[in-house]
Protein: Solute carrier family 35 member B4
Organism: Phaethon lepturus
Amino acid sequence: VFCGIALMLVSLLHACRQFPGCGNIVTFSQFLFIAVEGFIFEANFGRKRPAIPIRYYFIMVAMFFTVSVVNNYALNLNIAMPLHMIFRSGSLIASMALGIIILKKRYSVSKYTSIALVSLGIFTCTFMSAKQVASDSSLNEEDGLQVFLWWLLGIAALTFALLMSARMGIFQEMLYKQFGKHSKEALFYNHALPLPGFLLLAPNIYHHAVLFSQSELFQVPVIGLTLPIMWFYLLMNVITQY
């Protein structure tokens, strides 16, 4: 699992470093792969009825699709990849906050302490990233202010996605209590139902598909297959979703 996550992050980092706006094609590829795999092995080619009513999946899918698109778009708003990954680790904080507000939960002192330490780490990373953005754009005051405002918008987008993701988790927890836990089924529908929504992003996806095809050629070890290196990075990222 660790190697798979590491490979996924490395491939995503390489892709975003060369084409910062490629998040949509990466997300679409991940969704398509998981949907096809789930359609075959979980839904039995559409013959298996869902245990949870489909209307609840549409609500969950709306949240999931929004979170994925907003997280990807944040990379276009001067958000560095390390900050992006660290900020998303704050899901525990958001889940705890919404759990207290919505579910009226209470936690132990040790959990509050752990969350406080994680929050401090995220705040420190965000603060240092803000200083980096300010120093990189200090040559031109007007341009620097614009860059910093876009960065603030990126932080707002990540915060919104974090809270929406936590709300989706609570909604999913409530469904599991009512209908039983069906995690693989939820995984399939959460990735299959949003696929038509990518039609709204089709121009961007096609544009980056063309850019990927124009990248330098790379020979895959062992099998000897030659393909553009950006497609190789995307393939590695998608395979690790399994």
Remarks:
- The chain has two domains: 1-51+205-241, 52-181.
- Strands lie at 217-219, 226-228.
- The longest strand covers residues 217-219.
- The CA atoms of residues 67 and 164 lie 7 Å apart.
